[in-house]
Amino acid sequence: MKITKVLDAKGLACPMPIVKTKKAMNEIEFGEVLEIHATDKGAKNDLSAWATSGGHELLKYEEDNDIFKFWIKKSN
User: Fold this and answer.
1) With a threshold of 0.70, does the pTM exceed it?
2) Would you call 29 a catalytic residue per the annotation?
3) CB 36 within 8 A of CB 61
């Protein structure tokens, strides 16, 4: 998987991971992939729901030592 941009949202509380993700998604092109690192437990549900509602594709999600990692493909 080719990552276009990595967003460090660690230490940010809701809703900031979503706000930063939205801004980062506006900076990449259709079909490119944004990797997000977050520590807010709410990010798991929030980012998954945000990706779906925005028409983007959540390619992968994993947890690594209390860091939630997401890979979202820009679809529109």
Assistant:
1) yes
2) no
3) no
Which is catalytic among the residues 14, 16, 28, 58? 14
- For the chain, the domains span 5-73
Q: Name the region of 49 (left: φ>0; alpha: ψ -120 to 50; beta: rest).
A: alpha
Compute the C-alpha angle 4/75/15, nearest 5°: 75
Q: What gap in Å lies between CA 71 and CA 39, rounded to an integer?
A: 15
What are 17-45's pLDDT values in tens digits? 999 999 999 999 999 999 999 999 999 99
How far apart (Å, rounded) are the C-alpha atoms in residues 51 and 71? Answer: 10
CATH H-level superfamily of 5-73: TusA-like domain (3.30.110.40)
